[in-house]
# Entry
Amino acid sequence: MVHAMRHAWSVTLSLLLPLLGAGLAPHEGHAADEGRQRGDARRDALRALCQRLEIGLGAVVADVGCGDGPDSMVFAEVVGGSGTVVAQEIDTAKLRKVVDAAGQRGLHHVVPVLGRSDNPHLPDGYADLIYMNRVFHAVSDPDLPQPLDAAWCASALPLPPADQAEVVFVGLDRGRELLPALRRKLGPTARLHDIVLEEWAIAKDEVPAPSADSASDVLRTADGDLPMLTDRTLHAAVFADSYHRLWEPAKLLDRLRQCLRAGGAVVVLDRIGLPDESRRLAGHHRRMARSQVQEDMRQAGFTQVQELPAPTPDRFLLVFRAAPE
# Structure
């Protein structure tokens, strides 16, 4: 992200506690008054921050991970119409809210940018200030996932060729590139369920990242489970660069075991993690130890039947089936 800056200002919330503390601290009084006080204090704190950093009219501010855009609106007032606020998000639903809010306020210098978790999509040498509010903790190591050959992965997976197949897909980051490849392999009438993990989602109406396959059903886990699959019969479940986000996988794995037809498979494609990493740390680093996946599956009643050739040196590709009872 440093390459996107014209000057050396990159700010995270952890560095701003003296300035923003008033905007986050509780106040006495009714809830509505507290909300207004916090909002006013936060706006004042952001204005004070910009003043201290000499960010004013005509400046370019990148609000990375802007959410619904409340801070972007403040920055837009600070830089004025001669400046620019880049409202960057990886969630299209949130970005639409930012566009609507800016339009209602006449802040046409707020520019929406859809980024990725491994690439903010900010132009080099563009911004005077890059601001991240509750975002930096989710930034992974510089060791980013290597690109996937989605067509190769889809062809290697043990999936039924029948058009009537029913498959659960859980994909994040580069793993989402596998979804359209699965659609091409399974055919247009196969049923693909695109799963949103609550561990990843921020809002209840979270939608998956855009995909070339628009014909998938979107399902969301609830309390670690997918109860809407109760009466379904699945041919396979595919985790693509996403298993590391499961903090408590037992319920979901149990549901998949119940729904899989005889001979159905659970496929886990993920980055190679360290055996001693906690689940939450593994999730932030976007990787998972192979041994942890194997132990989770064993406890859930699955047996590993195959380890396929890894599509990239930083990943593993495991296939599990329900263990005989």
